[in-house]
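Project standup — Tuesday

K.O.: blocked on the structure for the chain from last sprint. Re-posting the sequence here as requested.
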Amino acid sequence: MNNAIIMALPNEAPKLVARPDIFFSGVGKINAAMTATRVIEQHRPKRIINFGTAGGITVQSGLHLVTRFVQRDMQCQELGVPVGVTPYEGLGAMLFTHDQSGLICSTGDNFVTNPDLAIPADLVDMEAYALARVCHHYGVEFVCYKFVSDHAGDSAAQDWAVQVSAGDQLYQQQLYRLGV
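H.V.: unblocked you, prediction finished:
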C-alpha cells in the first residue's frame, strides 16, 4: 500500500468511508497513535495522509495544509521542560514535515474554547501530533490537511457538530490532486 488515509471519525468524510485505504482512529491522541501504529505495521504505507476537522486560531474556513505539530496538553514545567515538550523524549516541542515554516497544528485531548494558547498554533485538533509522531518514529511520510470547522471559542463543540462533514468534498478534491 502506497498511501493510507487516517481520519478520526467516519462522519467527517461520509463519501470516503468505502475506500479500502481509509482508516478511522476515533477521537484523541491515544486512539490516533494506536491506529497509525497498526496501519504502518500491517500495511506498510509509504505515506499517511490525515484529513480532519480543526479549530481555527489564525486561519479561517477552508482546507489547510499543516506541516508543524505541537502537543498543547503536555505541560511538565516542574520537570524543567517547556510547555509542549514531552520529558525525556529528546524531540523538542515541535515536529515538522517537509516545511518548517508552514502552519502549526496544536493537538490536545480537548475542545479549545479560548484561543489564547500557551504555545503557538494556527489550528487546533485532537489527533495530528500523535499521527505525526508515529510516522516520524517509523520513517513514514506524513501529510496533513485540516478543515476549519470552528473557531476555537465558547461554541467550538456546537460549531463542530454542525460543520463536521463540511470538508468532505474538499478532501476528495485534495486526494485527486495528490493522485490517490
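K.O.: great, moving the ticket to review. The two ends are 11 Å apart (CA to CA). Residues 47 and 141 are 5 Å apart (CA to CA).
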